[in-house]
Amino acid sequence: MPNKRTKKCSKNSGISIANNQPNISKYFISDSSYPTSFLKKRHAANEDTNEHSPTKKILKLFEKRDSSNISQPCVIPEATSEKLHSFSFKKTITDEERIFNPESSSGANKSLKGNDEKCCLNPVSETIEDIESNAVSEQQAVSNSRVKYTPLEKQYLNFKEKYSDAILLIECGYKYKLFDKDAEIVSKLFNLAYFKSHNFMSARVLASRLYFYVQQLVLKGYKVGVIKQTETAAIKAAGNTKNDLFTRELDAMYTKSTLIGEEFAAACSENIEDSFSASNEDMSSGYLMCIYEEPSPISHPNLNIAFVAIQASSGDVTYASFQDSALRNILETYLIHINPAEILLPSSLSKETENLISNFSTDRLIRTEKIPQDIFDITFALDSVSSFYTEEGTEPKNSTDLKQTILSLPSPVISCLSALIPYLTKFKLEGFLKHLNYIKPLSTNDDMILSSTTLKGLDILTNSSSHKESGSLFWVLNRTMTKFGERLLKNWIAKPLKKYCLLEERLNIVTEIIHSDSIVFKIVERILYKLPDLERILCNVFYQKCSCLDFLKLLQAFSKIKEELQSADDKIDCEVESPRLKIIFSDLPQLLNDVERFLSNIDQNAAKEGDKNNVFRDTSLYPDLQTCHEEIASAEQSLNNLKPEICKVLKLINFKYATVNCQKYLIEVPTSHLRSVPKTWLKISSTKQFSRFKSPEVIELSNKIEQIKERMKECASKAWSSFLNDFGASFFKHKRAISHLAELDCYFSLAKVAKQENYCRPDIVNSGEQVFHVLQGQHPILKKIMGEENQYVANDITMNANINCIIVTGPNMGGKSTYVRQTALIAIMAQIGSYVPAEAVRMSLFDKIYARMGAEDTLSQGRSTFLNEMSETSEILRNCTSKSFVILDELGRGTSTNDGAAIAYASLEYLISKMKCFTMFVTHYPSIIELKTVYPDAISVVHMGYILKDKDDETDIESVTFLYNVVHGRSKKSYGINVAALAGIPKNILLEAQEKSQTIELKATVQKKISELFIKLRRCKQK
């Protein structure tokens, strides 16, 4: 029977039974700050006329915020928050729930005689915070001179001491609390309310939205820790510690490179209409990169640098060790290739390396963390790495082979591994590092690494203006259907091939896909279409962090691939020509031969619902889980056995247990039969037609079922981890299958590009002849931007063993830079294995492709425009070979005309006479063109075509029409004043500039003639 002190709660009144106060606290734990109109509407029924009440004060705060039009969190004053705290989160709790959860009682029995079905709430999550926040120990009350922390605050301080560098979210029932600075950061970022609670500022987020906030914080560069309760209210109530503080432990720590797991897969798939939502690319985990430089004497300009990079979400592990100059150009190149999300560094670094990494990280919101220098010491590193790789479950198992494998790595790489192992162990992600056979060098002899200057100058992976993929070569070539295929294609583009047989194999496959009518290729395309990100799901399986639904998708995809390819087995043998494709098609079914065994034991409906308790069709392999199922079935049968006795007591023919607002096993009694209800029964809720009760026997059995379910949840989680672990034993076999699929996706992507109008297959020469001939070539990026309707002016290029240098001149805005970029992009596309935008291309293979385009300063690194220009040129001059392709755009313009022209002249002469590599040189310096007289056979001088029109009557300046075609011979002038006129420079300034230009040109002409006379006189004297 209800308690006499119970007060009636009108429907939707929002009244808390604890003190008959409006329960407004729920409006401050949501995902965003509610508008004032919403609060007013929700509180209209309260008729709270007291202007000094907490409700009114908080409403005024929201009105003030809304009127200011400034997005900011609502900070509740301490005085108001203290009043608010007296009734915050004290929602109605029934007597039955007190029995179920004795911890929720703190004094008087507060039962409810309610007629609102919504009044019955879950006691397990509603009262945890009240108990812990208000339970101040007697020792704290003794002294007023010291800060009096609540048990929960003490627990927070202990965790914060251990994890001071992380934002901590602490589970408190159905929400997660943040304290102090953590609360302030989250409140400002997400516009959440925060207020003083006891000794700290506090903010709250709903448990259902936890991983959304974790994800957003991590993507903004924060390290985030999630601290969870290690015991549930149901189990705690049945134990001896029911009145103690809930025990909590760190459940997981997350950073940008370790953001993986089933929780974030769900967060990525949500359609969240929020200004904080990130793109799919941002949501994906990036590389964790550990960089180390060996100590070097101060006088020595070069340093040995190494890195190891791991992408935990895909299982890729790569490394490199190299000697870099003081400008760190090679390190910058690798940073752009890896594009890490997080960087680990030793505590001591050279100033040059520190500046480069700081500048690179700041621009891209990359998180950096310093590691103690001792961990990188090679003696310590060898011991710690050897110990790690001799643990059980590590490959290779033979200690001799292991030692040889480790010692074969460069010592700086071993130092990086020494730092990565303990760091990844904190996140339980060290598994991939245990397989040394899968740690690969970033660069091999089969491919070339495009320099950072080339990647940026030619817009290879991103455009140079907004740094987005749109407007890049990757944007042009990316027609992949899968995420893992897209990642592989990006790798292909950044590392073009330089081995003839591999390049021809790719081109042959692309050609076969274009021209073949075989059903096999249609089947493959159908397989690849709309595949989930199998690579990331497989890695989640490896880490045992995969959801039931994702694992089901993985198994179904594998099963479909195997079935489809096996059905086309006879056609593959007779209709597919490429040996490489035949290997892939025959290999895939064998790699996936164990999939059906796992798929057959999954209940697909339960997997789709994420129900781990019932996901297994056969639970015999998991006896603990099976026992839980049996105990629940027994308890439910006991409940059913009570039905006849209940019908007899209530004088009913029959009845069914009702479930209302998650309250199960309710005995629903019609109002006309209420007199038959025994006094020992507990009333839960009522309506006009029915009242709902629980008998003592039902309460006991339902509590028992809840306790078993809590135990079952833990058993199911362990069983699921064991199931994933069994599948993960074949991880590398399945990873190889996904690599095959990614390779197929890249071939189909290149085939789609090749089918476009005016694309041709490049003819790769392998005879030793140096040649580069392009007929009617077009710029691939501009061609796509302009579309089919716009006319792009195509141009030719011819370079061979005799003519290895082309000097490009012409008017400003005439298309010089576009022309040389176009040529380099065609070369790169050809060596990727792609068709190219031209009528015909015949070329020999380049071992390196360099492009130094434009100029800009790097103030954060203390490097001027000219220093950047010179450092990039220095890198090219030091590393190019006779088989390289070099593009230099207006070298020397960052300094005085004389110095710039001299440097440009000397650099170009070195490339022509010493290196004898193919070179395209854009310039406005007349003296550079004079090299044509020194090397008449090796140099071809061209300019971009234009038409001069009549002079303007007002400015006396000729107008120029650009034709954008390549014309042999030098350009008369650069026509810079014409460009200035197009830019809107005032006419009086243009006239003065025109006059000054004519004067300078006249002086230059006179000086040139005088120089020619002196040269003739000197020759005459020598004779």
Automatic annotation (TrEMBL):
Keywords: ATP-binding, DNA damage, DNA repair, DNA-binding, Nucleotide-binding, Nucleus. InterPro entries: DNA_mismatch_repair_MutS-lik_N, DNA_mismatch_repair_MutS/MSH, DNA_mismatch_repair_MutS_C, DNA_mismatch_repair_MutS_clamp, DNA_mismatch_repair_MutS_core, DNA_mismatch_repair_MutS_N, DNA_mismatch_repair_MutS_sf, DNA_mmatch_repair_MutS_con_dom. GO terms for molecular function: ATP binding; ATP-dependent DNA damage sensor activity; mismatched DNA binding. It is found in: Nucleus. Signal peptide: none annotated. It holds the Pfam family MutS_IV. SMART domains: MUTSac, MUTSd. One of its GO terms (biological process) is mismatch repair. Its main location: nucleus. Residues 884-900 form the DNA mismatch repair proteins mutS family domain. Component of the post-replicative DNA mismatch repair system (MMR). Belongs to the DNA mismatch repair MutS family. MSH3 subfamily. NCBIfam families: PRK05399.1. This is DNA mismatch repair protein MSH3. It comes from Oedothorax gibbosus.
